[in-house]
Write a structure and sequence with these properties.
Belongs to the zinc-containing alcohol dehydrogenase family. Its cofactor is Zn(2+). InterPro entries: ADH-like_C (IPR013149), ADH-like_N (IPR013154), ADH_Zn_CS (IPR002328), ER (IPR020843), GroES-like_sf (IPR011032), NAD(P)-bd_dom_sf (IPR036291). The chain folds into two domains: 7-172 and 339-370, Quinone Oxidoreductase, Chain A, domain 1, CATH 3.90.180; 178-316, NAD(P)-binding Rossmann-like Domain (Rossmann fold, 3-Layer(aba) Sandwich), CATH 3.40.50.720. 28% of the residues lie in helices and 25% in strands. It has twelve helices and 17 strands. It has helices at 45-52, 98-101, 111-116, 165-168, 174-186, 201-213, 225-233, 247-254, 270-278, 302-308, 322-334, 352-360; strands at residues 7-11, 20-26, 33-42, 67-74, 86-89, 127-128, 134-135, 148-152, 156-159, 193-197, 217-222, 238-241, 260-265, 280-288, 311-314, 344-348, 366-370. Strands 3, 4, 5, 8, 9, 16 and 17 form a seven-stranded mixed sheet that branches.
Length: 371
């Protein structure tokens, strides 16, 4: 076995239990896989949701889906990267279903099993624990809460050799989701109004994307004053307290019309979704990227929705093609239009417990584990 196996990883043994930093062993590669030496991994709210049971996850498991690292070995079927290449990791997709062929891989017909199934497509597991027990992985095709990870070919995006892996690791999920919701799913136009409901890392990426799109009014809504201040520094023109009982009315007033042109919900909270829809003006378009527990339901005023011609859609991964969106966001950052460093705090992997605690307590907007 190569020098990277055994390696270390954060293992979730039971839903609701803390992660443990342990040694694991990697299986041999399949043709469509690579071994990536992970240098940094962003912590996403989806990781927390799987750890707590809000979203499905088999145990024991290695999570993590905003990885960045260097390719150390490739399978025989991998051709777009080579050993030694730097890569950012994103979600997995089949590349052959109707949605993938139409350039919408975020809506892959096999998205759930490929990203949440906990195993390879053939059902096999590729990690072993210290007692030779099987460990689920392949989370978003990567399970990058690990020093070395077996990564699906479609989850890898090659980036230039001078790429700062620590800085750009979060682009693979949360930040491309927020940016893509604005630029792809909503299609925010120059001079329009945009309301962002919930300005955690995804919402802050949406705010920055609103600036890129040329929105004239960008209204950030949240319960955390510090995050509203951060949103303002990233381009929000107005901020509102999400707990204000008149928040919808205030959003409408700030739109200078009968409601905003565009809105994005980054919370998945039914009441927030309802408020977002109610804040839309004529022909207003809103979307949700926040993922609640399956079965959550929001209600709408059907007549108001009808007469105003409103639209409400869902948005997975911001409808992004990672191989296109990730290089685009890197370029936008270099031009000073996507200053993601303002929301990031780095933690050595030995301090992972503090990173998760700080994120859960909203002390850190975007923690990144450095391996």
């Amino acid at each position: 076995m190569a020098i990277y196996s055994p390696t270390s990883a954060l293992v979730l043994h039971d839903i609701g239990s803390p992660l443990k930093l342990e040694n694991i062993t990697l299986a041999s590669l399949q043709p469509n896989e690579a071994i990536v030496e992970i240098h940094a991994t962003g912590i996403c709210h989806t990781d927390l949701s799987c750890m707590s049971g809000v979203l499905p996850a088999a145990t024991p498991n290695v999570l993590g889906h905003e990885g960045a690292g260097i390719v150390r070995e490739i399978g025989s079927g991998v051709s777009h990267v080579a050993s030694g290449d730097k890569v950012l990791l994103s979600y997995n997709f089949c590349a052959s279903c109707e949605s993938c062929i139409a350039d919408h891989p975020a809506y892959c017909a096999h998205f759930v099993p490929l990203n949440f199934g906990g195993s390879r497509p053939d059902g096999s597991l590729c990690l072993k624990g210290t007692q030779d027990e099987d460990i689920h992985s392949n989370f978003f095709g990567q399970s990058s809460f690990s020093r070395h990870a077996i990564v699906a070919a479609n989850s890898m995006v090659k980036v230039p050799a001078d790429t700062d892996l620590r800085l750009y690791a979060p682009l693979g999920c949360g930040l491309q989701t927020g940016a893509g919701a604005v630029l792809n799913s909503l299609g925010v136009t120059k001079g329009s109004s945009l309301a962002v409901w919930g300005v955690g890392p995804v919402g802050l990426a949406a705010v920055m994307a609103g600036v890129i799109a040329g929105a004239k009014a960008i209204i950030a809504i949240d319960l955390q004053p510090a995050r509203l201040e951060l949103a303002k520094s990233l381009g929000a023109t107005h901020t509102l307290d999400g707990g204000d009982e008149n928040v919808v009315q205030k959003v409408v007033e700030l739109s200078k019309s009968n409601g905003v042109n565009f809105a994005v919900d980054c919370t998945g909270v039914p009441k927030v979704v309802e408020n977002m829809i109610h804040s839309l003006g004529t022909k207003g378009r809103g979307c949700t990227v926040g993922a609640p527990k399956p079965g959550a339901v929001a209600s709408i005023d059907i007549f108001a929705h009808l007469i105003h011609g409103r639209e409400y859609i869902g948005s997975t991964e911001g409808d992004c093609v990672p191989s296109k969106m990730i290089p685009f966001l890197i370029e936008q950052h270099k031009e000073g239009r996507f200053p993601l460093e303002k929301m990031i705090k780095y933690y050595e992997v030995k301090n992972f417990e503090q990173a998760f605690t700080d994120m859960a307590a909203a002390k850190t907007v975007k923690p990144v584990l450095v391996w």
